[in-house]
Amino acid sequence: MATGRTHRPATRSRGIPEATVARLPLYLRALTALSERSVPTVSSEELAAAAGVNSAKLRKDFSYLGSYGTRGVGYDVEYLVYQISRELGLTQDWPIVMVGIGNLGAALANYGGFASRGFRVAALIDADKSLVGKPVAGIPVQHIDDLEKIVEDNGVSIGVIATPAGAAQQVCDRLVAAGVTSILNFAPTVLSVPEGVDVRKVDLSIELQILAFHEQRKAGEEGGGDVEGVLPAAAAVRSPGAAEGAGATSSGRKGPDGDLPAVMPA
Amino acid sequence: MATGRTHRPATRSRGIPEATVARLPLYLRALTALSERSVPTVSSEELAAAAGVNSAKLRKDFSYLGSYGTRGVGYDVEYLVYQISRELGLTQDWPIVMVGIGNLGAALANYGGFASRGFRVAALIDADKSLVGKPVAGIPVQHIDDLEKIVEDNGVSIGVIATPAGAAQQVCDRLVAAGVTSILNFAPTVLSVPEGVDVRKVDLSIELQILAFHEQRKAGEEGGGDVEGVLPAAAAVRSPGAAEGAGATSSGRKGPDGDLPAVMPA
DNA sequence: CTCTGTGAAGATCTTCACAGCT
DNA sequence: AGCTGTGAAGATCTTCACAGAG
Asked: Which residues in chain B have Cβ-Cβ distances shorter than 8 Å to A210?
């Protein structure tokens, strides 16, 4: 998980397992697709296949939400879409601010998925004055000097950081001070936040490194000479479904030459 | 997992837990930073703090790699950087191809983290002919018709998909057929791949939804019991912060495949 | 009979706490 | 002393397999 300053303490209240929460969006997407095709019901088997998980896991996940299925039949698509949306809090409007409008920030701003899922880009913020006023994805970029005001005026509680690594912590501190309590961090840095603030991190460098690890394992190795225990013939490979991540991984590292802002500064 | 068996993740001395592998890049980044400051050694406590994990976990993780520390002292930074790099397979060159050069693809291509170690963008590929030949991040975009040739000529085994959701599976199939065995998918779709191929997914929409879930939790139970949901009639809209919006969401219609392209179509 | 919901078993991952090297 | 390395306990997550609703 990518929760920054973890929160283990809290009372084990009526909670849905974190692993399950991480999969709900996946189910929701599959269900939405079915809904658009006017499919009325699905079995756990079918839905699981569409979401890329196994059916037992899916049924177990749903069991934490309640008994929304019908034995011998399956699940009502519309009803389930609604229940999951509600559970995820998507039945309400979430204004978000995005800080750092470089290549990545622009790509994120253009990401259609926001609007359709209860998220609304309330503001785009950057430190580069030459960008201010310029519209990106139809939204004019505002200067970072106004960050606090923007957050407060819009009642923003979720912020997205797509600045270079060096600016991330500072931006994070300001967002938190202004009232943001959930942050999605694209900068390759570990953010430290006070308790109560959630941080999820997305870093492509880490993802690539993990792939490289497995790739290395697949390709026969040369000098290494470890192998020994590997089964001949078919090497054990991770099941594709397992690659599904709770998302959030993190990191990236500095390079000899350039640092690696998650994206270009401006 | 689509069809078959779940593989027994072969338990061998060389088998590093997946959770550990996912953290190695984090440690590597922290170590690289220390290395650049010419710090000779670090204790598990210090390094753990820099990486954002607890020290017991870090020591346990390192124990899978071997005994690279010195009791009473700590770990030699340079040595550890090397060992982790080697373990992750970063001591070799990994040519990668990126398919789908829209906003996101361009952002990724410009991502400095690639070049700085192990990864090399061998080619940028897009289906849009008007983009072909145009340099992005200094690399000329090539047409997707040449995908197979490009992959083969460059010995590419890792591909990055940043196309719209609708094109992802097809691109994936072609990459795999051409020899790619590891894929980093940014398109909001579940890719199905043959056994032996690894897929990792990065999905912004999912990350935001997970944050929304936790955010909703924090918002407190100001209202009263949520529970018991009725069918999607009037969605309850509750604003998290001060101001508020009124967009109900749930199952709004939107793009073609019900989902959002990770970025502008290529 | 079909397919959900779930107790229980199994597999992983995390944390503790301390033996043992330096 | 200080700090690593690790068995063992604990917490989570996954999978099995079947009772039982429809």
From this structure: 21-22, 25, 88, 200
**In the structure, how far is the CA atom of residue B71 from the C1' atom of nucleotide C20, in angstroms?**
9
Joined together, the tokens standing for residue A79 give: 């009803």
Higher per-residue confidence, A176 vs A115: A176
Which residues of chain B from 182 to 201 reach within 8 Å of chain A, CB to CB? 182-184, 188, 190-193, 195-201
C-alpha–C-alpha distance, residues B164 and B46, integer Å: 42
The least confident of A142-151, A237-246, B126-135 is A237-246
Does the nearest atom of strand C lie within 7 Å of A71's Cβ?
yes
Q: Name the residue in chain B with its Cα closest to that of A193.
A: B52
User: For B132-190, how does the pLDDT look when each residue is reduced to its tens digit (9 = 90+)?
Assistant: 999 999 999 999 999 999 999 999 999 999 999 999 999 999 999 999 999 999 999 99
- Write the pLDDT tens digit of every residue in B126-140: 999 999 999 999 999
Integer Cα distance of B54 and B46 in angstroms: 10
Cβ atoms within 10 A of the Cβ of B257, count?
18
**Strands, E, within chain B: which ranges?**
41-42, 69-70, 74-76, 94-99, 119-126, 135-136, 139-143, 158-161, 182-185, 198-201
pTM, whole model, 2 decimals? 0.83
Best mutation target among B27, B84, B191, B210 (most A Cβ atoms within 10 Å) is: B210
